[in-house]
Amino acid sequence: MTKNSYKTGPDELGYFGSGESAMGGMAVGETLMPVLHELNQGFEEAIKDQSFLDEFDYHCKHYIGRPSPLYYAENLTKKLGGAKILFKREHLNHTLSHKVTNSLFQVLLAKRMKKRALICESGAGQHFSATAAVAAKFDMPLTGVMGDIDIARVNQNIIKAKHYGAELKSVPGTLKEAITEAIKTFSSNPDYAYICGSVVSSAPYPRIVQFAQSVIGREIREQSMEQEGRLPDMLIACCGGGSNLIGMIHEFLDEPEIIKIGVEAAETAALSNGTPGIMQGMKTYMLQTDDGSKSLGGSSLGAGIQYFSVGPQHSFLRDQGIVKYTSATDKEILEAYKLIASTEGICSALEPMAGAAELIKQAKNKPKDYLICLNLCGTGEKDLNTIQEHIGKDFE
Q1: Exposure on the CB side of residue 324, measured as CA atoms within 13 A
Q2: Are 159 and 95 a contacting pair, CB within 8 Å?
Q3: 120, 147, 230, 280: least CB-packed within 10 angstroms?
Q4: How far is it, in rounded angstroms, from Cα 164 to Cα 4?
């Protein structure tokens, strides 16, 4: 990597880019600063420790089941009649999404730093379930914080997390409120490690999560070269906070010939409809009032992408034109779900179906030798009640 590489950020202050347009930072109170600096030092030391990295790799293979398959979606490809379609099947990881890779890395880091307890936030419950599984494996107590709106619709992940021994704390609202509460608890308890679920919040979390999840893109590079003899022409993933997307594209940020697309929920599309602001420890795009005093945002069927903001690296990449960001409506997400379920026999989570909605649009108009890869980042079991409520009659 060169100094000007898009893969080298953020800088020592946690910013992606420079000057007034920089995104990220460490916009927190004085009480949290020492804890974050301690975490950053612990992270920098850990990633230089080959024994730590070897332990992470070992558990990625033997506990998570990595690498996840790169799958040729032959039936969908034929149905759409355009580009050749590949799925990066992250939903086949242990705990059924991409989240567990990040959870594993951060719990191992907390263990290395001799932390005694863990706290995490979650929207779809997938990060809570994944972190609970890893916490159980390494015998560490975990409290998961979720908004009551999300709890009401993704109970399967919550049940599993409780089976793993985790406790659930409910707060009014959704993912935004859960993050705020988790940070508040973390800041007042020095024995806690906050296991952040996405590339959001104050530095150093965006970089830590980016580092953990970038294994996705490295696997895609190796698998695509082995299976296809070349790299994909286009990479697509959904984007809430943005961890599965950055995990997929980080490896390819310095390769402009590969088109990269992130797809938000239309109802909470911060990169399409938001403005730069500072909240939850970071400067990034967010849906907010004109004076920046209050956050805004609607409701999406995909709990994990219903977030009023987005990770600061995505805001930087948007402004630089390195990644294209678009959005998908609930209707488009449900239609994509039906198509993939009926053609490929895959029950996907609703979040990656935002990416699938964009994939369907893109693939139809591309030649047959064009290669598109979708990050299928989660399984649909958690969403079956929601899917049945909205489109269950379509399958009868």
Answers
A1: 13
A2: no
A3: 230
A4: 44
Distance CA 8, CA 123 (A): 29
Which three-class secondary structure state does DSSP give residue 293?
A: coil
Q: In angstroms, what CA-CA distances link 302 with 45, 110, 174, 280, 386? A: 36, 30, 12, 21, 10
pLDDT at 304: 84
CB atoms within 10 A of CB 107: 25
For residue 28 the two structure tokens come to 């927190």
Looking up tokens 């108009």 gives 365
As to burial, measured by CB atoms within 10 angstroms (0-12 exposed, 13-18 middle, 19+ buried), residue 162 is: middle
DSSP H or E stretch at residue 118: strand 117-122
Instruction: Reply yes or no: is the peptide bond before residue 10 cis, omega within 30 of 0.
Output: yes
Distance (Å, whole) CA 158 – CA 256: 40
Closest CA to 353 of 386, 381, 331, 385: 331
pLDDT at 303: 83
pLDDT at 134: 98
What is the distance, to the nearest Å, from the Cα of residue 122 to the centroid of all Cα atoms in its chain? Answer: 11
Helix-strand-coil split of the chain, %, nearest 5: 50, 20, 30
Strand order in the sheet with 167-171: 167-171, 142-147, 117-122, 192-195
DSSP state letters, 19-48: GGG-EEEEE--TTTHHHHHHHHHHHHHHTT
Burial (CB < 10 A; 0-12, 13-18, 19+), residue 54, is exposed
Burial class (CB in 10 A: 0-12, 13-18, 19+), 349: buried
- Beta pairing partners, 215: none
Please give the pLDDT value at position 137: 98
The DSSP H or E segment spanning 129 is helix 126-137
Residues of the chain with pLDDT under 70: 1-3, 154
Pure H helices in 321-395: 330-344, 350-364, 384-391
My answer on whether omega of the bond before 190 falls inside 30° of 0, hence cis, is no
Closest CA to 206 of 337, 17, 356: 17
Taking the complete model, does pTM exceed 0.90, yes or no?
A: yes
DSSP letter assigned to residue 365: T
Residue given tokens 């907390």 in the structure block: 110
